[in-house]
Design a protein that fits this description.
The protein is α/β, with parallel strands linked by helices and 493 residues long. The protein folds into 4 domains: 48 residues; 110 residues, Fervidobacterium nodosum Rt17-B1 like (Heat Shock Protein 90, 2-Layer Sandwich), CATH 3.30.565.40; 106 residues, Actin, Chain A, domain 4, CATH 3.90.640; 181 residues, Glycoside hydrolase/deacetylase (TIM Barrel, Alpha-Beta Barrel). It is built from 16 helices and 16 strands.
């Protein structure tokens, strides 16, 4: 009897011990899991920050088009997304579907990587440019930039087309009259343009180029139509495994004018087309939701020439900071010992605080370019104040340097906007149009034609072509005897 009771007591002790072991095991697993999560949050620098997703819609500078902005400050998978919407549901559905797919692919990838190593963090930025054509068609150039762990970067460009008045969308087949002969010629022209482009020749895989430009309409459906050229976009890596940007080919309309549908043809004969293209380039005032207008208004920030003094010029860069382009530009400015003024977007400073700090450490002037790049004239006073004040706050918080100038997006300003900030307003008189042509050579051509003593030159530190062309611009200005100064030095003279 005693032996039986002893066995039952031993069995009870064993069960209790086993339960304790299991409990401790689960507790250990839980602590390890929490530690991993905390390490991931610490890596991102945003531990204990509540995730906030904000969706906002504002009117654009283009009738019938609104800008939707979605942002998330999530520590592991932040994103900043802007895309167009209209009154036409078919167009809206297509754009929204693309955006949602891109967002879900990004979040899924982050979650999968997180399950593997627990330390993955990413970033997704989607922005867009709007390029108008005289026919009424807008080309919306959606630019997607995705990072995983700050190193695995993937870029993509996708273009949508819409006539906001009629709701009609445009395909490359319609643009070229659905003529197979035109497709054949187009294929040959684009292919030869790629072969001859010095910016694309390095490590070019000819077989890949041939495949990407085969006589298939789908190969050319990713295009932007301007009043003087067609720009065909291809996927990153389409021509070379070493490509850091999605490649594109620019075809002047005068070269393909006879192939185009009537409503898209240049109205002038061959002998006049060059002048027409030049005039069109000068008159395309607004062609992007995230860039500037060519003529910001009647105001000018330039000054009268200094008598018997050195010629001065202010270099300005908008829409950054960017982890790749801004750093390249900083290196070139250092080479020429050239100070510049960087008009930063608050939303990008939030994602790239370390790059904003690099600009400050390099000794450059910091300017305010609003938080999300809206047309401030279309906003309420409260929203204008928020766009400006929030941006000033984060720039000064992350860099420790005072913001000394304000540049309204698109140069769009009125008395209501002006009265919402005490910062001096800095516009420009030389627009390099780097956001439009993406051509380093054209940047230099415009600088040569338009720069004078006291000029303020507008560029953007988010385009690779701008970084590629900057050295030649600074070399030219230096050889012409210009002294580089900040915008404040121009304004305060």
């Amino acid at each position: 009897m005693k032996r039986s009771q002893r066995k039952r007591r031993i069995s009870w002790i064993d069960v209790t011990f086993s339960i304790a072991i299991i409990t401790l095991t689960f507790a250990a697993i839980y602590l390890i899991t929490q530690k991993t999560k905390n390490e991931a949050l610490a890596t991102s620098g945003k531990e204990n920050v509540t995730t906030v997703i904000i969706v906002d819609t504002i009117d654009s500078s283009y009738p019938g088009i609104k800008i939707v902005t979605e942002t998330s400050n999530d520590a592991i998978s932040p994103f900043a997304i802007q895309y167009p919407q209209s009154v036409h549901q078919d167009f809206n559905d297509e754009v929204t579907s693309y955006i949602e797919t891109a967002k879900q692919q990004y979040l899924t990838t982050i979650n999968q990587q997180q399950e593997v190593n627990g330390k993955t963090a990413g970033e997704l930025n989607i922005s867009f440019e709007t390029v108008p054509h005289d026919s009424g068609i807008y080309s919306f150039i959606i630019k997607k930039d995705r990072f995983i762990d700050k190193s695995n970067q993937k870029k993509e460009i996708h273009v949508f087309h819409l006539n906001p008045e009629t709701g009609n969308q445009l395909t490359v087949e319609q643009l070229f009259n659905e003529d197979p002969n035109n497709l054949k010629q187009l294929s040959s022209i684009v292919r030869n343009t790629i072969y001859k482009d010095p910016m694309l020749q390095e490590n070019l895989d000819l077989q890949n180029v041939h495949i990407a430009t085969e006589e298939l309409w789908n190969n050319f459906n990713n295009f932007a139509l301007t009043n003087d050229h067609l720009r065909f976009y291809f996927q990153q890596g389409a021509f070379s495994a070493d490509e850091l940007e999605p490649p594109f080919a620019v075809i002047p309309l005068k070269e393909i004018n006879t192939m185009l549908a009537d409503e898209f043809k240049l109205p002038l004969d061959e002998s006049q087309m060059t002048d027409h293209a030049t005039k069109t380039l000068e008159n395309e005032i607004e062609s992007t939701e995230n860039k500037e207008v060519t003529n910001p208004g009647s105001e000018s920030n330039t000054i009268d020439p200094i008598v018997d003094g050195p010629k001065r010029v202010a270099l300005t860069f908008d829409d950054g900071p960017d982890p790749k382009i801004t750093t390249q530009i900083l290196d070139i400015l250092k080479k020429y010992e050239a100070p510049a003024t960087f008009f930063m977007l608050g939303s990008r400073v939030e994602y790239y605080p370390e790059i904003a700090k690099l600009v400050q450490v390099a000794g450059h002037e910091l300017g305010n370019h609003t938080w999300t790049h809206p047309d401030l004239r279309k906003l309420s006073v409260e929203k204008i104040q928020s766009e400006i004040n929030q941006t000033t706050a984060i720039i000064e918080q992350e860099t420790g340097q005072k913001v000394t100038a304000f540049r309204p997006p698109y140069g769009a300003i009125n008395q209501t906007v002006r009265s919402q900030t005490s910062l001096p307003v800095a516009l420009w008189d030389v627009d390099t149009l780097d956001w439009q042509h993406h051509n380093p050579t054209k940047i230099l051509e415009i600088v040569k034609q338009q720069t004078k003593d006291g000029s303020i030159i507008l560029m953007h530190d988010i385009h690779q072509s701008t970084a590629d062309g900057l050295d030649a611009v600074l070399s030219f200005l230096q050889n012409e005897g210009y002294v580089f100064v900040t915008v404040s030095e121009i304004l305060n003279k």
